[in-house]
Amino acid sequence: MEKKLAKIEIIEKYCKGCHICVEFCPTKVLEMKGFVVSVKNLEACIKCMQCELRCPDFAIKVSAE
Amino acid sequence: MSKKVAFMQGNEAAAHGAIYAGCTFFGGYPITPSTEVAEVCSIELPKIGGKFIQMEDEIGAMAAILGASLAGAKVLTSTSGPGLSLKQELIGYGCIAEIPCVIYNVMRGGPSTGMPTGPSQSDVMCAKWGTHGDHPAICLTPASVQETYEEVIRAFNLSEKYRTPVMVMPDEIVAHMRERVVFPEPGEIEVIPRKAPTVPPEQYKPYDTSFGDVPPLAAFGSGYKFHVTGLNKMQDGFPTTKAEIVQAEEERQVRKVEANVDDIASFEEYMLADAEVVVVAYGSTSRSARYAVNVAREQGIKAGMFRIKTFWPFPDKQIKALAAKVKGFVIPEMNLGMCSLEIERNAQGKAPVLGIFRVDGEPINPDQILEKIKEVK
Amino acid sequence: MAFDYDKWIRPGKLPHIWCPGCGHGIVMKGLIRAFETLQLKKEDTALVSGIGCASRLPGYIDCCTLHTAHGRAAAFATGVKMAKPEMNVILVGGDGDGTAIGGNHFIHACRRNIDMTYIIMNNYIYGMTGGQFSPCTPTGHKASTTPYGNPDPGFDIAKLAIGAGATFVARGTAFHANQIDKLIVEAIQHKGFSVVEILDDCPTTYGRRNKYKSVIEMMNRLKEVAVPVKAAEKMTAEQLQGKVLTGVLYKEEKAHYTDEYAKVIERARAAK
Amino acid sequence: MSRYELRFSGAGGQGLITAGIIMAKAASIYEGKQAVQSQSYGPEARGGASKSEVIISDGPIDYPKVTQCDALLAMTQEAANKYSHDLKEGGVLLIDSDLVKIVPPGNFKTVAFPIINTAKNDVGREIVANIVALGAMVALTGQVTRENAEKAVLSSVPEAFIELNRKAFSMGYERAEAAAKG
Q1: Full domain range(s) for residue B322
Q2: Is the predicted pLDDT of residue D45 greater than 60, yes or no?
């Protein structure tokens, strides 16, 4: 069965580059690209939502449908 | 049908006046010599479904009334010298956020604890310059118990009409002496309601100057939602540091009062038509002045009195006009010359200004004033 | 499934003013989730704050918001709640604002047990003025005004609140983001004065002075020190050394002020 | 203008403030005159000396304090010594004869009777000495009628003490009348 991928939306103008999402992602989905976060490995996402919950800047939206 | 009358103190009359004006919230902190206001409010307000709260300190009391006013209530606090000093930051908040409220301050000796039970008139400058920053100031100085009742009503009206804090400042003598009060019937004295918004909530801006210098104020919990801050703000209530907006808003806040001096300022002219010596007085001191003027007239001296009922905005125009035609001013006041400075500023050297300054906790008696009247040549 | 925070954020107000890595944004998200869970009506919800970084929060939230003077949030809010008891009144602010200049209003709001919720973001420092020590800065720590280490002992906000009479006291951390909304929901539902302390981080003015290499290190510290009250029950005193309890620390059903004042009105009317 | 100035003086706790208020109320509310009452506050009002001033007039009253006293009640020696000097020529001084042993000299009419003792022994309660004194002051000053003053007394005291106060007032009024004649 094909795995349904999460949709991770990064709102770049809100991201302040704090690293919290990158560091605390249990499956290392995210990385810093310059000062802003970006998605490195969407396949690995387990939709735990921790990045969205912990982003202080409203810069990450994860949709898991 | 005879009207309801009572024999009461200025402080008690103030509380009853507030209730006539529609006050439904009192927040205060006990301080001599103003506590009777709180005591009467604690009895009377709950009877009409209003609220009385004794806060933990003077600042808290000022904060509570501002919060309650934003939630739609007409609000009052009472205090005296040290309390007025403590309330100053939030009086400024009331000015910049444009929140109607009435501050009743009984003037006692100072600075600091000073003479808690002695009369004084030394808070009149604090009423204008106490809080930092440019701001409008309205301050009423009643001279009798009846007038205290009526001026508190007027204070509420001015506060709502101009959306700004208003102070009523009797000296301790007026606050504590007892006289007859004749209570007006409902409707006999105009009570001005708060100007509510006419636009739907989604279009509402708390400082929308398209409605003039005094924008309507919605109440929290009435279907409107908006932001209030003590920072310099834009018309929508959100903070700004944009130079032209800050300048315009600051000027408007002050203009609300400055451009309406004729509506706000009130005074009494007593035997001024041919007066050569004018006693300028306010509060209880004006009662001694009237006595002295009467005696002076009996002795053939052309004396008169200009009684200041509204200390701020100051009656500049009237004093300037008097200065041009009189031989001199006599200013009795229970401080070391606060009103005198204002008179000198307006007299511009055209007439001498003789002060009687008393800060010993004793009233200025008519003899002292009469003596000074005679010194004007 | 992404949570729709925009429903509660005022249009055009983001990005917010907080520094990179500051946990205040995490707390704000928790607050929004709580509001949404409770389906609060914006027009009937007042969010009141004092002065400081954390006190800027109300400016972003679409409801009746009141950004007052330094330390005075609880006193303003008391006026709002008394005048309109049917409103939900929520206070937010920092540790300096709430426990130093606003300490008196804080303890008396607790004592009255007035039905409001106070969320204190405790980052142990005055951030907005550049990092002076607060009543919550731990002893020995550095701040711009304790260059040789802080000689003062710090407040325990939760103990202070319980001692002063608050009837619901909880603690969470900015790291444990998924707990924040749950604590706030319970606090708002509680009848009486509820306090939620959120241990927070200030990487800019506190972290750097106290040898935290990064935001991550600060977040990890919050992760390490936090022990849920349930877990703590099974731990020894030795194991609890240096730890901070999280979760609902205190809860009591008790008469609260707005109800009690309604009774005053009844008695006054009866005596008329 | 018919300005009449009264001073009620003595010790804190003697009820002199209340006596002054009732006198002024009688004039202002029941007699149709104007009246102002004021008092000293502060440490003086807590156990030490006590002073209540009343100005009564047919017209508006400007200066609310005593300038030259028309009638003085002194319930202690100290008060008699302190305030009798600004009593007008031809004015009235009422003293408690048990408490003021040295009668201050002056061109005024002094009336003395044991006020506190009258309250204690003849009325039955020392606490109403102030109302005995008030009754006496009403009789001696003639500023308000006996009926109006009594109305003011009765409207100012709790229901349960109406009779006691009525008796105290009458006793004071009559004792003063008798003492003034004698």
Answers
A1: 266-375
A2: no
The length of chain C in residues reads 272
A16 in contact with C at a CB cutoff of 8 Å?
yes
Which one, of B194, B233, B234, B237, lies nearest residue B217 by Cα?
A: B194
A neighbours by CB contacts (3+ pairs under 8 Å): C
Which 3 state secondary structure label does DSSP give A37?
A: strand
The residue from B232, B264, B296 where one domain ends is B264
Tokens coding C94: 């920092």
8 Å CB contact between C245 and C201: no
Nearest to B224 by CA among C78, C64, C117, C164: C64
Amino acid at B194: R
**Within 13 Å and on the Cβ side, how many CA atoms surround B96?**
26
Chain A residue with Cα closest to C9: A58
Question: Other C-beta atoms within 10 Å of C254: how many?
Answer: 12
Distances A47 to A21, A59, C23 between C-alpha atoms, Å: 13, 16, 22
Q: Does D46 contact B at CB distance below 8 Å?
A: no
Say yes or no to pLDDT of B377 above 90: no
The CATH code that applies to domain A7-63 is: 3.30.70.20
Domain co-membership, B289 together with B213: no
Contact B108, B33 (CB under 8 A): yes
Residues B141 and B151 in one domain: yes
Cα C143 to its chain centre, rounded Å, is 22
For residue B280, give the CATH number of its domain.
3.40.50.920
Domain that holds residue D127: 3-181
Residues B253, B275, single domain; the answer is: no
| Crossing angle of helices B58-70 and C103-112, rounded to 10° | 70
- Its pTM stands at 0.96
pLDDT tens, position by position, for chain C (272 residues)?
689 999 999 999 999 999 999 999 999 999 999 999 999 999 999 999 999 999 999 999 999 999 999 999 999 999 999 999 999 999 999 999 999 999 999 999 999 999 999 999 999 999 999 999 999 999 999 999 999 999 999 999 999 999 999 999 999 999 999 999 999 999 999 999 999 999 999 999 999 999 999 999 999 999 999 999 999 999 999 999 999 999 999 999 999 999 999 999 999 999 87
What CATH number should be reported for the domain holding residue B240?
3.40.50.970
Domain count, chain B: 2
Domain chopping of chain A, boundaries: 7-63
- What local confidence, expressed as pLDDT, does residue D41 receive? 63
What does residue B42 show for φ and ψ, rounded to 5 degrees? -65, -25
- Percent composition of chain B: helix, strand, coil (DSSP 3-state, to 5): 40, 20, 40
In tens, the pLDDT along B255-314 reads 999 999 999 999 999 999 999 999 999 999 999 999 999 999 999 999 999 999 999 999
Chains C and A touching, counted as 3 or more CB pairs less than 8 Å apart: yes
- In a shared domain, residues B228 and B159: yes
Nearest CB among D24, D45, D65 relative to B178 is that of D24
User: Does residue B260 sit in the same domain as residue B272?
Assistant: no
- DSSP of D27-83, one letter per residue? IIIISS-EEEEEE--GGGGTTSEEEEEEEEESS---S-S-SSEEEEEE-SHHHHHHH
What six digits make up the tokens of C106? 């804080």
CATH code where residue D15 lies: 3.40.920.10
Beta strand C64-67 pairing with C45-49: parallel
Structure tokens at D131: 């109302």
Q: How far is C238 from chain A (nearest CA, A)?
A: 29
Q: Please state which CATH number belongs to domain C12-271.
A: 3.40.50.970
Neighbours of D5 (CB within 10 A): 22
**D residues 75..94 contacting B (CB < 8 A):** none
Question: Domain extents for chain C?
Answer: 12-271
Instruction: Note whether D62 contacts B178, CB cutoff 8 Å.
Output: no
Which of B264, B285, B303 is the last residue in one of the domains? B264
